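Worked example 2:
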Amino acid sequence: MGDDAALIDRFLEMMAAERGASRNTLLAYRADLEGAGNVLGGLSGATKDMIAGLANAWAELAASSVARKASALRAFYGFLEEEGLRADNPSSSLPRPATRRPLPKILSVQEVDALFALIEQKLIVEHPAPLDLRLSALIELLYGSGLRATELVSLPRRALAADRPFLILKGKGARERLVPISDRARAAVAAWLPHVPAESAWLFPSGKNHVSRIRLYQLVKQLAAAAGIAPQRVSPHVLRHAFATHLLEGGADLRALQSMLGHADIGTTQIYTHVDSRRLVELVNSRHPLATMRHRVVDDKASAP
């Protein structure tokens, strides 16, 4: 279990930095992971068959509790695989009780515009500060390409080629995907590159390594607060959700979105159709002529003698 403790700590650090998980969420994840580890005799070496046995151990629990525990384990093993700490992901054998999946947190287009307007104010001076140029490149890539926080901060120095408007990334499960890079993002990176030491292996260096997920998380929160947006509503992962939602609202194909986000299962991508559907319902209720017509009929009846 000693190895488990260190791995759980690293996983929870990622959840706090990349996903903006609250303290209560982190405590719940820790309890669920440690509880599963006690049942299995350890998480790090558990096999698919061992993990499948958790369904029996959780048989008396409510479906929502099973879903929460399974979600914690899926995220944990996905993290281990992505970080190269485990060669396989045994979580496919976890139970999948039928529960309603929560909609992701998103920002409106206007709120994202406010973030970029603040960055633009920092850059219109004659000699922008290097850290402001770095912030511009980070946010342009984060929102403009839907990168995961880990993928973004660990980009190699020469990840973006001048003659190639896309990246080829190796994401979860060592799956490669093509990520389009906007002209704005390429321009932002070009403005930042002269400030990257020539000997650096990273596009966003920090000391002997690259900028950490935690530092990216802090930068996003600080930017949100300065733009007048509640910091608890914003994280690197929320900007990834905004990228996906706004693309879908703009008419993007779901399969193309799946490819850009690096989802192995299109069911994961389909959550954004629910977000878009909710927006459409709100739009109909507030803007459709029938919305005002209904009220008018009710008012007419109420005023009739």
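Residues 294-298 have pLDDT under 50 and may be disordered. The two ends are 78 Å apart (CA to CA).
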